[in-house]
Amino acid sequence: LLVFLSLALPGTQGKIIPRCEMVKILRRNGFQGFEGTTVADWMCLVKYESGYNTKAYNDNGPSRDYGIFQINSKYWCNDGRTPGSKNACHISCSKLQDDNLEDDIRCAKKIAREAHGLSPWYGWKNHCRGRDLSSFVRGC
């Protein structure tokens, strides 16, 4: 789907973060052991949610998911178009689509902290949970 979106919507291609660079970013920002997760868990999540693309987005009807962690506008950010948005991360969704990942990381950690894990992310639940994810960090 993301491949189709990037072809259908010019200008949606953000920075595709190389795998080992993303591993370093996650390690540097304390994701190993965070809420019982591993860097490999987060790497798998990012692969299946956004394909490592900082500008990724996905429409979910009335709400939309934004950025490398695919953070939802109904609960976590404000995109000015989602009715009843909670904006729990106190951030504009557009900030989740730039190449600066600091705010994305803060919000993703808030989501994981509140959920005590990665269950809010369907990409992780459907493709990563309970699997051997060592290949996501191997060699990095």
TrEMBL record:
Residues 89-107 form the Glycosyl hydrolases family 22 (GH22) domain. It catalyses: Hydrolysis of (1->4)-beta-linkages between N-acetylmuramic acid and N-acetyl-D-glucosamine residues in a peptidoglycan and between N-acetyl-D-glucosamine residues in chitodextrins. GO terms for biological process: cell wall macromolecule catabolic process; defense response to Gram-negative bacterium; defense response to Gram-positive bacterium; killing of cells of another organism. One of its GO terms (molecular function) is lysozyme activity. Keywords: Antimicrobial, Bacteriolytic enzyme, Disulfide bond, Glycosidase, Hydrolase, Secreted. SMART domains: LYZ1. SUPFAM superfamilies: Lysozyme-like. Its EC number is 3.2.1.17. GO terms for cellular component: extracellular region. It is found in: Secreted. PANTHER family: LYSOZYME C. Belongs to the glycosyl hydrolase 22 family. This is lysozyme. It comes from Quiscalus mexicanus. The lineage of its organism: Eukaryota, Metazoa, Chordata, Craniata, Vertebrata.
